[in-house]
Amino acid sequence: MSAPVPATRAHQEYWRRIGRQEIETSLRRQVNWRPAKNVILLVGDGMDPNTVTAARIHLAKEEGKLSFERFPHLGLLKTYSTNKKVPDAAASGTALFTGVKTNNGMIGVDVRVKFDDCMSSLSPHVRATSIMKWAQEVGKATGFVTNRRVTDATVSALYAHSASRFWECNNVSREAQMCKDIGRQLMEDEPGRNLNVIFGGGRQTLMTNAPFTVYDKIDEFTCSRSDNRDLIESWLNDKAIRNVKSQYIQSNNELVQLDTSRTEYALGIFSNSFLPYESQRNKSLTGQPSLEFMVEPAIKLLKKNYNGFVLVVEAGLIDKAHHEGHARKAIEETIEFDKAVRKTMQVLHDHGLVDDTLVVVTGGHGHTMSINGYPNRNESIFGIADLSKHDGVPYTTLTYATGSKVNFQYNRRDNWVSREDPSSKDTTDINYANLAAILTDKETHGGGDVTVYATGPMSHLFHGVHEETYVAHVIAYAARFGPFRNSAEKVAPAFFIIVCSVFSFLRTSIVAKTSFATNAAKHIFRPLPNSRSSSGTGLIYDTLDAASTCGGHKLIVPTEALKKSL
What we know:
The protein is α/β, with parallel strands linked by helices. Helices cover 27% and strands 18% of the residues.
Protein backbone atom coordinates (compact mmCIF):
# COMPACT_ATOMS: atom_id res chain seq x y z
CA MET A 1 0.00 0.00 0.00
CA SER A 2 1.48 3.34 -1.04
CA ALA A 3 2.01 6.14 1.44
CA PRO A 4 -0.53 8.99 1.36
CA VAL A 5 0.42 11.94 -0.78
CA PRO A 6 1.37 14.87 1.50
CA ALA A 7 -0.94 17.83 1.31
CA THR A 8 0.58 20.62 -0.76
CA ARG A 9 -0.71 23.82 -2.26
CA ALA A 10 -1.93 21.76 -5.21
CA HIS A 11 -4.30 19.73 -3.06
CA GLN A 12 -7.66 20.86 -1.75
CA GLU A 13 -6.92 19.40 1.66
CA TYR A 14 -4.05 21.87 2.16
CA TRP A 15 -6.37 24.84 1.90
CA ARG A 16 -9.08 23.18 3.95
CA ARG A 17 -6.56 22.51 6.70
CA ILE A 18 -5.47 26.14 6.62
CA GLY A 19 -9.11 27.20 6.88
CA ARG A 20 -9.74 24.90 9.85
CA GLN A 21 -6.64 26.17 11.62
CA GLU A 22 -7.74 29.78 11.23
CA ILE A 23 -11.23 28.98 12.52
CA GLU A 24 -9.77 27.16 15.53
CA THR A 25 -7.53 30.14 16.25
CA SER A 26 -10.52 32.48 16.04
CA LEU A 27 -12.59 30.30 18.38
CA ARG A 28 -9.80 30.27 20.95
CA ARG A 29 -9.51 34.04 20.91
CA GLN A 30 -10.36 35.65 24.23
CA VAL A 31 -11.18 39.21 25.17
CA ASN A 32 -9.01 41.00 27.72
CA TRP A 33 -11.31 43.37 29.62
CA ARG A 34 -8.81 44.55 32.20
CA PRO A 35 -7.58 48.17 32.15
CA ALA A 36 -4.27 48.69 30.38
CA LYS A 37 -1.52 49.57 32.83
CA ASN A 38 0.82 50.18 29.90
CA VAL A 39 0.30 51.29 26.30
CA ILE A 40 2.70 51.00 23.37
CA LEU A 41 1.67 52.60 20.07
CA LEU A 42 3.91 51.76 17.11
CA VAL A 43 3.40 53.86 13.98
CA GLY A 44 4.86 52.89 10.62
CA ASP A 45 4.72 56.28 8.94
CA GLY A 46 3.46 55.69 5.39
CA MET A 47 2.79 51.99 6.01
CA ASP A 48 -0.42 51.40 4.07
CA PRO A 49 -1.90 47.97 3.19
CA ASN A 50 0.05 47.70 -0.08
CA THR A 51 3.30 48.39 1.74
CA VAL A 52 2.48 45.74 4.34
CA THR A 53 1.57 43.24 1.62
CA ALA A 54 4.79 43.84 -0.32
CA ALA A 55 6.87 43.55 2.86
CA ARG A 56 5.11 40.32 3.78
CA ILE A 57 5.76 38.80 0.36
CA HIS A 58 9.40 39.88 0.41
CA LEU A 59 10.01 38.57 3.93
CA ALA A 60 7.81 35.49 4.19
CA LYS A 61 6.20 34.92 0.76
CA GLU A 62 2.50 35.26 0.09
CA GLU A 63 1.36 32.80 2.72
CA GLY A 64 3.50 34.24 5.52
CA LYS A 65 2.76 37.07 7.92
CA LEU A 66 4.55 39.93 9.58
CA SER A 67 4.58 39.70 13.37
CA PHE A 68 1.87 42.30 13.95
CA GLU A 69 -0.39 40.64 11.38
CA ARG A 70 -0.78 37.86 13.95
CA PHE A 71 -2.33 40.24 16.48
CA PRO A 72 -5.86 39.08 17.35
CA HIS A 73 -7.72 42.32 16.61
CA LEU A 74 -7.63 44.78 13.75
CA GLY A 75 -9.61 47.45 11.96
CA LEU A 76 -9.29 50.19 9.36
CA LEU A 77 -8.61 53.87 9.96
CA LYS A 78 -9.92 56.69 7.76
CA THR A 79 -7.01 59.06 7.34
CA TYR A 80 -8.45 62.19 5.69
CA SER A 81 -7.74 65.51 7.40
CA THR A 82 -10.28 68.27 8.00
CA ASN A 83 -9.29 70.15 4.84
CA LYS A 84 -7.76 67.50 2.56
CA LYS A 85 -8.78 64.08 1.27
CA VAL A 86 -5.14 63.06 1.62
CA PRO A 87 -3.46 63.92 4.95
CA ASP A 88 0.09 64.89 5.76
CA ALA A 89 2.04 63.60 8.75
CA ALA A 90 1.13 66.60 10.91
CA ALA A 91 -2.60 66.02 10.52
CA SER A 92 -2.37 62.25 10.93
CA GLY A 93 -0.10 62.57 13.97
CA THR A 94 -2.50 65.02 15.58
CA ALA A 95 -5.42 62.67 14.91
CA LEU A 96 -3.62 59.61 16.29
CA PHE A 97 -2.23 61.22 19.43
CA THR A 98 -4.91 63.74 20.44
CA GLY A 99 -8.12 62.21 19.11
CA VAL A 100 -8.87 65.43 17.21
CA LYS A 101 -8.59 65.97 13.45
CA THR A 102 -7.01 69.11 12.07
CA ASN A 103 -5.88 70.69 8.80
CA ASN A 104 -2.78 69.56 6.97
CA GLY A 105 0.40 71.23 8.17
CA MET A 106 -0.71 71.94 11.74
CA ILE A 107 0.37 70.28 14.98
CA GLY A 108 -1.76 69.69 18.08
CA VAL A 109 -4.39 72.35 17.31
CA ASP A 110 -7.91 72.24 15.93
CA VAL A 111 -9.38 73.78 12.79
CA ARG A 112 -9.97 77.16 14.39
CA VAL A 113 -6.26 77.80 13.88
CA LYS A 114 -5.13 79.10 10.51
CA PHE A 115 -2.07 77.51 8.95
CA ASP A 116 1.10 79.56 9.48
CA ASP A 117 -0.81 82.04 11.69
CA CYS A 118 0.89 82.27 15.06
CA MET A 119 -1.68 84.45 16.82
CA SER A 120 -4.58 82.11 16.05
CA SER A 121 -2.79 79.24 17.83
CA LEU A 122 -2.15 80.95 21.18
CA SER A 123 -5.52 80.37 22.83
CA PRO A 124 -5.57 77.25 25.06
CA HIS A 125 -9.07 76.51 23.74
CA VAL A 126 -7.76 75.64 20.26
CA ARG A 127 -5.02 73.34 21.55
CA ALA A 128 -5.59 69.58 21.57
CA THR A 129 -4.23 67.61 24.53
CA SER A 130 -2.25 64.47 23.70
CA ILE A 131 -2.11 60.99 25.20
CA MET A 132 1.26 61.93 26.74
CA LYS A 133 -0.30 64.73 28.77
CA TRP A 134 -3.15 62.46 29.84
CA ALA A 135 -0.73 59.74 30.89
CA GLN A 136 1.42 62.13 32.91
CA GLU A 137 -1.66 63.44 34.72
CA VAL A 138 -2.23 59.97 36.21
CA GLY A 139 1.42 59.45 37.09
CA LYS A 140 2.53 57.22 34.23
CA ALA A 141 6.00 57.28 32.70
CA THR A 142 6.05 58.49 29.09
CA GLY A 143 8.37 58.51 26.12
CA PHE A 144 8.80 58.19 22.39
CA VAL A 145 11.29 56.67 19.96
CA THR A 146 11.68 57.69 16.31
CA ASN A 147 14.20 57.39 13.50
CA ARG A 148 13.23 60.83 12.22
CA ARG A 149 13.83 64.15 13.98
CA VAL A 150 12.33 64.37 17.47
CA THR A 151 10.80 67.66 16.31
CA ASP A 152 9.37 66.24 13.08
CA ALA A 153 5.69 66.35 12.14
CA THR A 154 4.35 63.03 13.45
CA VAL A 155 5.93 62.80 16.91
CA SER A 156 5.70 66.53 17.62
CA ALA A 157 1.93 66.09 17.94
CA LEU A 158 2.69 64.22 21.17
CA TYR A 159 3.81 67.40 22.93
CA ALA A 160 3.56 70.52 20.74
CA HIS A 161 0.93 72.98 19.54
CA SER A 162 1.91 74.80 16.36
CA ALA A 163 0.22 76.53 13.45
CA SER A 164 2.94 75.10 11.22
CA ARG A 165 4.81 71.81 11.25
CA PHE A 166 7.80 73.68 9.82
CA TRP A 167 8.42 75.76 12.96
CA GLU A 168 10.83 73.19 14.36
CA CYS A 169 13.36 75.82 15.46
CA ASN A 170 13.70 79.59 15.72
CA ASN A 171 14.93 80.07 12.16
CA VAL A 172 11.50 80.92 10.75
CA SER A 173 9.55 84.06 9.79
CA ARG A 174 9.50 87.03 12.16
CA GLU A 175 5.76 86.61 12.77
CA ALA A 176 6.23 82.95 13.58
CA GLN A 177 8.89 83.81 16.15
CA MET A 178 6.13 85.19 18.38
CA CYS A 179 5.22 81.54 19.00
CA LYS A 180 7.53 79.16 20.83
CA ASP A 181 9.08 76.81 18.29
CA ILE A 182 8.55 73.04 18.43
CA GLY A 183 12.04 72.32 19.73
CA ARG A 184 11.59 74.65 22.69
CA GLN A 185 8.15 73.23 23.43
CA LEU A 186 9.72 69.77 23.62
CA MET A 187 12.43 70.81 26.05
CA GLU A 188 10.71 73.56 28.07
CA ASP A 189 6.95 72.91 28.23
CA GLU A 190 4.66 70.16 29.45
CA PRO A 191 4.33 67.40 28.49
CA GLY A 192 7.62 67.51 26.56
CA ARG A 193 9.96 68.32 29.44
CA ASN A 194 8.39 65.52 31.49
CA LEU A 195 8.96 62.78 28.91
CA ASN A 196 11.17 60.10 30.43
CA VAL A 197 12.48 58.85 27.08
CA ILE A 198 13.24 60.86 23.94
CA PHE A 199 15.18 58.92 21.29
CA GLY A 200 15.66 60.05 17.69
CA GLY A 201 17.42 62.54 15.43
CA GLY A 202 17.23 66.31 15.01
CA ARG A 203 20.26 67.79 16.74
CA GLN A 204 20.29 70.76 14.35
CA THR A 205 16.85 71.91 15.55
CA LEU A 206 17.88 71.71 19.21
CA MET A 207 21.27 73.43 19.34
CA THR A 208 22.96 76.32 17.56
CA ASN A 209 25.93 75.41 15.37
CA ALA A 210 25.30 71.68 15.67
CA PRO A 211 28.48 69.73 14.88
CA PHE A 212 28.43 67.77 11.64
CA THR A 213 30.51 65.30 9.69
CA VAL A 214 30.51 63.93 6.16
CA TYR A 215 28.41 61.06 7.52
CA ASP A 216 26.03 63.28 9.50
CA LYS A 217 25.44 66.42 7.50
CA ILE A 218 23.19 69.37 8.26
CA ASP A 219 19.85 68.95 6.49
CA GLU A 220 19.49 72.03 4.29
CA PHE A 221 15.77 71.42 3.81
CA THR A 222 15.08 71.75 7.55
CA CYS A 223 15.62 74.74 9.80
CA SER A 224 18.79 74.92 11.89
CA ARG A 225 18.74 76.65 15.25
CA SER A 226 20.44 80.06 15.21
CA ASP A 227 19.39 81.78 18.47
CA ASN A 228 22.48 80.73 20.45
CA ARG A 229 20.37 78.31 22.46
CA ASP A 230 21.47 74.79 23.32
CA LEU A 231 18.24 73.03 24.24
CA ILE A 232 20.08 69.81 25.03
CA GLU A 233 22.09 71.61 27.69
CA SER A 234 18.88 73.25 28.91
CA TRP A 235 17.30 69.78 29.22
CA LEU A 236 20.23 68.56 31.32
CA ASN A 237 20.07 71.66 33.53
CA ASP A 238 16.33 71.21 34.05
CA LYS A 239 16.83 67.64 35.24
CA ALA A 240 19.65 68.70 37.56
CA ILE A 241 17.47 71.42 39.11
CA ARG A 242 14.70 68.86 39.63
CA ASN A 243 17.23 66.49 41.19
CA VAL A 244 16.38 63.56 38.91
CA LYS A 245 18.83 61.15 37.33
CA SER A 246 19.23 61.85 33.63
CA GLN A 247 21.54 60.93 30.78
CA TYR A 248 22.22 62.30 27.31
CA ILE A 249 23.47 59.81 24.72
CA GLN A 250 24.59 60.13 21.09
CA SER A 251 25.79 56.73 19.82
CA ASN A 252 25.32 52.97 19.85
CA ASN A 253 28.02 52.64 22.47
CA GLU A 254 26.39 55.12 24.83
CA LEU A 255 23.02 53.43 24.34
CA VAL A 256 24.57 50.06 25.22
CA GLN A 257 26.02 51.57 28.37
CA LEU A 258 22.77 53.28 29.42
CA ASP A 259 21.87 51.98 32.88
CA THR A 260 18.09 52.03 32.75
CA SER A 261 17.83 50.83 36.35
CA ARG A 262 19.47 54.03 37.60
CA THR A 263 18.17 56.50 35.01
CA GLU A 264 14.86 58.36 35.23
CA TYR A 265 15.18 60.48 32.09
CA ALA A 266 17.08 59.61 28.92
CA LEU A 267 17.63 61.88 25.92
CA GLY A 268 19.18 60.23 22.87
CA ILE A 269 19.89 62.43 19.85
CA PHE A 270 21.78 60.35 17.30
CA SER A 271 21.92 62.56 14.19
CA ASN A 272 21.44 66.10 12.98
CA SER A 273 18.32 65.24 11.01
CA PHE A 274 16.82 61.82 10.20
CA LEU A 275 18.66 58.68 11.21
CA PRO A 276 20.08 56.78 8.19
CA TYR A 277 18.25 54.04 6.36
CA GLU A 278 19.08 50.59 7.70
CA SER A 279 20.98 49.86 4.46
CA GLN A 280 23.20 52.90 5.11
CA ARG A 281 23.39 52.91 8.90
CA ASN A 282 26.76 52.90 10.67
CA LYS A 283 26.35 49.81 12.83
CA SER A 284 29.59 50.29 14.77
CA LEU A 285 29.68 51.44 18.40
CA THR A 286 30.20 55.02 17.22
CA GLY A 287 27.24 54.83 14.84
CA GLN A 288 23.49 55.25 15.16
CA PRO A 289 21.06 52.70 16.61
CA SER A 290 18.27 50.96 14.76
CA LEU A 291 14.66 51.33 15.83
CA GLU A 292 14.78 47.77 17.15
CA PHE A 293 17.84 48.60 19.26
CA MET A 294 16.20 51.70 20.78
CA VAL A 295 12.96 49.99 21.80
CA GLU A 296 14.36 47.68 24.48
CA PRO A 297 16.09 50.29 26.70
CA ALA A 298 13.07 52.57 26.31
CA ILE A 299 10.72 49.92 27.69
CA LYS A 300 13.14 48.92 30.44
CA LEU A 301 13.42 52.50 31.64
CA LEU A 302 9.69 53.21 31.50
CA LYS A 303 8.49 49.96 33.08
CA LYS A 304 9.97 50.93 36.46
CA ASN A 305 7.05 53.28 37.05
CA TYR A 306 4.55 51.68 39.45
CA ASN A 307 1.64 53.36 37.63
CA GLY A 308 2.67 52.04 34.22
CA PHE A 309 3.81 53.80 31.06
CA VAL A 310 2.94 55.02 27.57
CA LEU A 311 5.49 54.62 24.77
CA VAL A 312 5.16 55.71 21.13
CA VAL A 313 7.49 54.27 18.50
CA GLU A 314 7.65 55.80 15.01
CA ALA A 315 9.26 54.13 11.99
CA GLY A 316 9.54 57.26 9.90
CA LEU A 317 11.86 56.13 7.13
CA ILE A 318 9.17 54.08 5.36
CA ASP A 319 7.56 57.39 4.46
CA LYS A 320 10.88 58.97 3.46
CA ALA A 321 11.71 56.12 1.09
CA HIS A 322 8.28 56.25 -0.54
CA HIS A 323 8.60 60.01 -1.08
CA GLU A 324 11.91 59.36 -2.85
CA GLY A 325 10.28 56.71 -5.02
CA HIS A 326 12.42 53.84 -3.76
CA ALA A 327 9.93 51.02 -3.22
CA ARG A 328 12.45 48.42 -2.09
CA LYS A 329 13.93 50.79 0.46
CA ALA A 330 10.45 51.44 1.86
CA ILE A 331 9.79 47.69 2.04
CA GLU A 332 13.10 47.02 3.79
CA GLU A 333 12.28 49.76 6.32
CA THR A 334 8.89 48.14 6.89
CA ILE A 335 10.66 44.89 7.72
CA GLU A 336 12.90 46.80 10.14
CA PHE A 337 9.74 48.16 11.73
CA ASP A 338 8.46 44.61 12.07
CA LYS A 339 11.69 43.74 13.88
CA ALA A 340 10.97 46.58 16.32
CA VAL A 341 7.48 45.17 16.92
CA ARG A 342 8.96 41.70 17.51
CA LYS A 343 11.47 43.14 19.96
CA THR A 344 8.69 45.02 21.74
CA MET A 345 6.66 41.85 22.24
CA GLN A 346 9.75 39.91 23.32
CA VAL A 347 10.66 42.48 25.98
CA LEU A 348 7.08 42.57 27.26
CA HIS A 349 7.07 38.78 27.48
CA ASP A 350 10.45 38.62 29.21
CA HIS A 351 9.29 41.05 31.90
CA GLY A 352 5.79 39.63 32.38
CA LEU A 353 4.06 42.71 30.94
CA VAL A 354 2.05 41.17 28.09
CA ASP A 355 -1.30 40.85 29.88
CA ASP A 356 -1.17 44.43 31.20
CA THR A 357 -0.02 46.16 28.01
CA LEU A 358 -2.15 47.36 25.11
CA VAL A 359 -0.01 47.22 21.96
CA VAL A 360 -1.30 49.04 18.88
CA VAL A 361 0.35 49.07 15.44
CA THR A 362 -0.81 51.30 12.59
CA GLY A 363 0.37 53.22 9.56
CA GLY A 364 -0.55 56.88 10.06
CA HIS A 365 -1.21 57.46 6.35
CA GLY A 366 -0.59 55.81 3.01
CA HIS A 367 1.30 56.36 -0.25
CA THR A 368 0.65 55.79 -3.95
CA MET A 369 2.58 52.54 -4.46
CA SER A 370 0.61 49.78 -6.12
CA ILE A 371 1.15 46.07 -6.81
CA ASN A 372 0.51 45.56 -10.53
CA GLY A 373 -0.14 43.04 -13.27
CA TYR A 374 -0.16 39.30 -12.79
CA PRO A 375 3.40 38.39 -11.75
CA ASN A 376 4.21 34.75 -11.14
CA ARG A 377 4.36 33.52 -7.56
CA ASN A 378 8.05 32.64 -7.77
CA GLU A 379 9.08 36.08 -9.03
CA SER A 380 10.60 38.77 -6.83
CA ILE A 381 8.14 41.41 -5.64
CA PHE A 382 10.70 43.89 -7.01
CA GLY A 383 10.88 42.26 -10.42
CA ILE A 384 9.12 42.55 -13.78
CA ALA A 385 5.39 41.86 -13.78
CA ASP A 386 4.70 41.54 -17.52
CA LEU A 387 4.96 43.18 -20.93
CA SER A 388 2.56 45.94 -21.86
CA LYS A 389 0.34 44.83 -24.73
CA HIS A 390 0.31 48.40 -26.06
CA ASP A 391 3.98 49.39 -26.26
CA GLY A 392 5.63 46.00 -25.73
CA VAL A 393 7.76 47.41 -22.92
CA PRO A 394 7.97 45.53 -19.59
CA TYR A 395 6.67 47.04 -16.38
CA THR A 396 7.52 46.29 -12.76
CA THR A 397 5.27 44.75 -10.14
CA LEU A 398 5.64 47.83 -7.93
CA THR A 399 4.96 51.28 -9.37
CA TYR A 400 3.86 54.68 -8.07
CA ALA A 401 0.99 56.87 -9.20
CA THR A 402 3.08 59.99 -8.53
CA GLY A 403 6.81 60.60 -8.35
CA SER A 404 9.74 62.89 -9.05
CA LYS A 405 11.97 63.03 -12.14
CA VAL A 406 13.83 59.88 -11.12
CA ASN A 407 10.53 57.97 -11.21
CA PHE A 408 9.10 59.53 -14.35
CA GLN A 409 10.56 57.11 -16.91
CA TYR A 410 9.24 58.56 -20.15
CA ASN A 411 11.20 59.97 -23.08
CA ARG A 412 9.83 62.39 -25.64
CA ARG A 413 11.16 62.49 -29.19
CA ASP A 414 9.38 64.82 -31.60
CA ASN A 415 5.72 63.79 -31.38
CA TRP A 416 6.45 60.40 -29.81
CA VAL A 417 6.60 59.49 -26.16
CA SER A 418 8.26 56.24 -25.16
CA ARG A 419 8.61 54.51 -21.81
CA GLU A 420 11.98 53.34 -20.56
CA ASP A 421 12.53 49.60 -20.40
CA PRO A 422 12.95 48.71 -16.69
CA SER A 423 14.53 45.36 -17.60
CA SER A 424 17.63 47.28 -18.68
CA LYS A 425 18.23 48.06 -14.99
CA ASP A 426 18.41 46.02 -11.81
CA THR A 427 14.91 46.60 -10.49
CA THR A 428 15.75 44.67 -7.32
CA ASP A 429 18.45 47.16 -6.34
CA ILE A 430 17.61 49.02 -3.15
CA ASN A 431 18.19 52.37 -4.86
CA TYR A 432 16.10 51.60 -7.94
CA ALA A 433 13.52 54.34 -8.60
CA ASN A 434 10.21 52.73 -9.54
CA LEU A 435 8.11 54.01 -12.41
CA ALA A 436 5.61 56.79 -11.66
CA ALA A 437 2.66 57.70 -13.87
CA ILE A 438 2.46 61.39 -12.95
CA LEU A 439 5.41 63.75 -12.55
CA THR A 440 5.43 65.66 -9.24
CA ASP A 441 8.19 67.23 -7.15
CA LYS A 442 8.22 64.04 -5.07
CA GLU A 443 5.97 61.03 -4.57
CA THR A 444 2.86 62.04 -2.63
CA HIS A 445 0.83 60.51 0.15
CA GLY A 446 -2.20 58.40 -0.68
CA GLY A 447 -5.68 58.85 0.75
CA GLY A 448 -6.58 55.24 1.40
CA ASP A 449 -7.36 53.71 4.77
CA VAL A 450 -4.59 52.22 6.90
CA THR A 451 -4.89 49.11 9.02
CA VAL A 452 -4.70 49.15 12.80
CA TYR A 453 -3.59 45.98 14.59
CA ALA A 454 -3.91 45.47 18.35
CA THR A 455 -3.33 43.02 21.17
CA GLY A 456 -3.70 43.23 24.93
CA PRO A 457 -6.25 44.91 27.20
CA MET A 458 -9.22 46.37 25.32
CA SER A 459 -7.62 45.57 21.95
CA HIS A 460 -10.98 44.14 20.83
CA LEU A 461 -12.28 47.71 20.56
CA PHE A 462 -10.54 47.83 17.17
CA HIS A 463 -13.05 45.90 15.12
CA GLY A 464 -14.27 47.78 12.04
CA VAL A 465 -13.82 50.98 10.07
CA HIS A 466 -12.90 53.84 12.39
CA GLU A 467 -11.86 57.46 12.25
CA GLU A 468 -8.12 57.82 12.78
CA THR A 469 -8.93 59.79 15.92
CA TYR A 470 -10.41 56.62 17.41
CA VAL A 471 -6.93 55.35 18.33
CA ALA A 472 -6.38 58.03 20.97
CA HIS A 473 -9.83 57.42 22.43
CA VAL A 474 -9.30 53.66 22.70
CA ILE A 475 -5.93 54.23 24.37
CA ALA A 476 -7.47 56.69 26.83
CA TYR A 477 -10.36 54.33 27.60
CA ALA A 478 -8.12 51.29 28.00
CA ALA A 479 -5.66 53.13 30.27
CA ARG A 480 -8.35 55.09 32.16
CA PHE A 481 -6.90 58.54 31.59
CA GLY A 482 -7.81 61.74 29.78
CA PRO A 483 -11.54 61.85 28.95
CA PHE A 484 -11.98 58.40 30.56
CA ARG A 485 -9.98 59.04 33.72
CA ASN A 486 -12.94 58.46 36.04
CA SER A 487 -14.57 55.70 33.99
CA ALA A 488 -14.10 52.59 36.11
CA GLU A 489 -16.98 50.63 34.64
CA LYS A 490 -17.48 49.00 31.31
CA VAL A 491 -20.46 47.74 29.37
CA ALA A 492 -20.18 44.18 28.07
CA PRO A 493 -20.90 43.84 24.34
CA ALA A 494 -24.18 42.12 23.52
CA PHE A 495 -22.53 39.37 21.49
CA PHE A 496 -20.09 38.54 24.28
CA ILE A 497 -22.87 38.21 26.84
CA ILE A 498 -25.13 36.20 24.54
CA VAL A 499 -22.34 33.75 23.76
CA CYS A 500 -21.52 33.33 27.45
CA SER A 501 -25.20 32.82 28.27
CA VAL A 502 -25.64 30.20 25.58
CA PHE A 503 -22.53 28.33 26.65
CA SER A 504 -23.75 28.30 30.24
CA PHE A 505 -26.62 26.04 29.15
CA LEU A 506 -24.37 23.83 27.04
CA ARG A 507 -21.88 22.82 29.69
CA THR A 508 -22.82 19.17 29.32
CA SER A 509 -22.18 19.15 25.59
CA ILE A 510 -18.96 18.40 23.78
CA VAL A 511 -18.47 22.07 23.06
CA ALA A 512 -18.57 22.81 26.78
CA LYS A 513 -15.39 20.83 27.16
CA THR A 514 -13.35 23.62 25.62
CA SER A 515 -11.60 25.94 28.04
CA PHE A 516 -13.69 28.94 27.00
CA ALA A 517 -17.02 27.16 27.35
CA THR A 518 -16.04 25.54 30.62
CA ASN A 519 -15.35 28.95 32.14
CA ALA A 520 -18.43 30.47 30.55
CA ALA A 521 -20.71 27.69 31.78
CA LYS A 522 -20.20 28.77 35.37
CA HIS A 523 -22.11 31.99 34.88
CA ILE A 524 -25.74 32.88 34.34
CA PHE A 525 -26.60 36.42 33.32
CA ARG A 526 -29.81 38.29 33.94
CA PRO A 527 -30.75 41.68 32.49
CA LEU A 528 -31.08 44.49 34.97
CA PRO A 529 -34.59 45.92 35.36
CA ASN A 530 -35.45 48.58 32.76
CA SER A 531 -31.99 48.29 31.22
CA ARG A 532 -31.35 49.19 27.62
CA SER A 533 -28.42 49.45 25.25
CA SER A 534 -26.81 52.58 23.88
CA SER A 535 -27.27 52.78 20.11
CA GLY A 536 -27.58 49.03 20.07
CA THR A 537 -23.91 48.54 20.84
CA GLY A 538 -24.11 47.21 24.38
CA LEU A 539 -26.36 45.60 26.97
CA ILE A 540 -26.29 46.28 30.68
CA TYR A 541 -26.21 42.95 32.46
CA ASP A 542 -25.71 41.81 36.01
CA THR A 543 -24.22 38.50 37.11
CA LEU A 544 -25.46 36.31 39.93
CA ASP A 545 -21.91 36.58 41.21
CA ALA A 546 -20.63 40.11 40.67
CA ALA A 547 -17.03 38.93 40.95
CA SER A 548 -17.45 36.12 38.42
CA THR A 549 -15.77 36.01 35.04
CA CYS A 550 -16.66 34.90 31.53
CA GLY A 551 -13.91 33.33 29.48
CA GLY A 552 -11.49 34.32 32.21
CA HIS A 553 -12.40 38.02 32.16
CA LYS A 554 -14.29 39.96 34.79
CA LEU A 555 -17.52 41.72 33.84
CA ILE A 556 -17.92 44.79 36.01
CA VAL A 557 -21.49 45.87 36.67
CA PRO A 558 -22.07 49.53 35.72
CA THR A 559 -23.05 52.01 38.41
CA GLU A 560 -26.53 53.52 38.64
CA ALA A 561 -25.19 56.78 37.21
CA LEU A 562 -23.84 55.03 34.15
CA LYS A 563 -27.05 53.03 33.72
CA LYS A 564 -29.09 56.23 33.63
CA SER A 565 -26.78 57.75 31.00
CA LEU A 566 -27.30 54.85 28.60
